[in-house]
Design brief:
It contains nine helices and 25 strands. By secondary structure, the chain is of the alpha+beta class.
Length: 471
């Protein structure tokens, strides 16, 4: 019986039961039902997203480096503002930079305590990957202008899932800012690998007869190499940062060996004065002292010391205690790691946190009216490493007990869809192989073609669903 379901044979008249018209119709109905009405069954369509705030920031900074700009520092106030803006869109059900009551991006930024001189905002929804979001923004002139603007120093990103305008989706809010009038350069388009940069020679006028020309008695050249990034004594928050440098009086192709302390960590080759070393893996947390050496020579750079600090302070989950007494909530938790600032995002509101220190932890009080929406703790250290923790479920009461552990949710809708098209593809492959071995492929061409076309159309429709909208 099982053989009749999967493999064409004499008993099923050489037609696998799971590839007959009624089966294909059933697959179609199931796909339509899951993707159109899955929400009524509690099937979440956007919960296995690979989009994270860290990924978005990393892609943004990679783009800025390619355009010759500074990297942006994660700012906890901008992160809180982005989170509040996303929550506000879900709460008031709108999809725009400005809300139905005139809410602007700038009011969220200022409410977070970030008194900007320059500020900007990018929005996206419905995407499945951080790369998809970034590529869509870079394809839009206005969004691209924010990403490669030299006016910005800081960045904050929020990625929030929920139901917007009747559809389960993922919102991405990206906010940029600068607290000063300082500008950090002008974007220069990246040079493609097959393009050559031709420098225009400078025309120097010969000195007049009245000018005194000084001629050195000795003429010579000294080869040299130096590290230009990171800077001496700097703190790096990206553990995958590259070591950059340049050389003088070195012609042709050359190789640079990078040392961390006494250990060689890798080589990089270059044919230009500038070079850049990608370690290929993360630098360990802590202090580093790097030096560059021209291979097969004695030319070395000065040592450059820098510190890698990429770990954000986090709330210790096992220490969280939420209690309700006389209409007020008390929240106690401990923080792992060094921290500088803390804020609470309550729905679309950002509040200044007043806390007391108890038992090596913090105690915060909230009124019952303040926690009608989501409750999110935002922590940051002095270098801008930021973490967010949604503790909304701790305030859901069930038999007078607080829900301590969040519910694990999976991308069920997408898994069902991908599972169906993969299953049909496998059946179709088995059918082609069986007919080929029996020499009857000509008898099945029409059926295989029909099912194949159906499979291609369904697959294209499914993966088109992995796109989104920007604003």
């Amino acid at each position: 019986m099982i053989k009749n379901l999967f493999i064409p044979n004499k008993k099923n008249n050489y037609k696998a039961l799971l590839l007959r018209k009624i089966a294909i119709l059933s697959y179609s109905v199931l796909l339509i039902f899951v993707n159109s009405f899955g929400g009524f069954l509690g099937i979440n369509e956007a919960q296995a997203s690979t989009i994270t705030a860290g990924n978005i920031i990393s892609l943004t900074n990679q783009e800025r480096v390619a355009w010759g700009l500074n990297t942006l520092q994660t700012n906890s106030q901008l992160s809180a503002a982005a989170l509040a803006k996303a929550n506000d869109m879900f709460e008031k059900q709108y999809w725009d930079h400005f809300g139905p009551n005139g809410e602007s991006p700038w009011q969220f930024i200022r409410a977070a305590g970030y008194n900007y001189v320059y500020a900007g905002e990018n929005l996206a929804k419905g995407f499945k990957t951080a790369e998809g979001v970034h590529e869509a923004w870079m394809a839009s002139p206005t969004h691209k202008a924010n990403i490669i603007s030299g006016n910005y120093k800081d960045i904050g990103v929020a990625v929030v899932e929920g139901v917007l305008l009747g559809k389960q989706t993922t919102l991405v809010v990206q906010m940029f800012g600068n607290l000063t009038t300082e500008v950090f350069g002008v974007a220069v388009p990246p040079v493609e690998n097959n393009e050559k940069v031709v420098e225009t020679p400078q025309v120097v006028n010969p000195p007049s007869s009245q000018e005194k020309v000084v001629v050195n008695k000795e003429v010579g050249e000294i080869k040299s190499i130096r590290i230009t990034s990171p800077q001496e004594g700097s703190v790096v928050t990206d553990p995958n940062t590259n070591i950059k440098g340049d050389t003088s009086n070195v012609s042709g192709n050359y190789t640079v060996t990078i040392y961390d302390g006494d250990n060689a960590v890798g080589d990089v080759s270059s044919g230009a004065p500038e070079w850049e070393f990608d370690k290929g893996s993360d630098w360990e947390e802590g202090n580093h002292s790097v030096m560059a050496e021209l291979k097969d020579s004695t030319v070395k750079s000065d040592k450059v010391s820098f510190t890698v600090d990429s770990k954000a302070p986090v709330v210790s989950m096992e220490t969280i205690q939420v209690n309700k007494i006389d209409g007020k909530y008390t929240i106690f938790f401990k923080i792992e790691g060094e921290w500088k600032s803390i804020s609470l995002v309550l729905g679309s509101e950002i509040i200044e946190v007043e806390y007391t220190e108890e038992e090596e932890g913090l105690l915060i009080e909230l009124t019952e009216e303040q926690v009608l929406g989501s409750v999110i703790i935002v922590l940051a250290d002095e270098y801008g490493n930021t973490s967010e923790l949604d503790i909304s479920e701790y305030f859901i009461e069930e038999d007078n007990q607080k829900i301590i552990f969040p519910t694990l949710r999976l991308n069920t809708g997408d898994k069902i869809s991908v599972g169906i098209v993969s299953f049909v593809f496998l059946l179709l492959l088995i059918e082609v192989v069986v007919y080929w071995k029996k020499g009857r492929i000509k008898d099945a061409v029409n059926d295989i073609f029909t099912i194949g076309v159906w499979w291609i159309v369904i697959t294209i429709a499914l993966f088109n669903g992995f796109s989104g909208i920007i604003n």
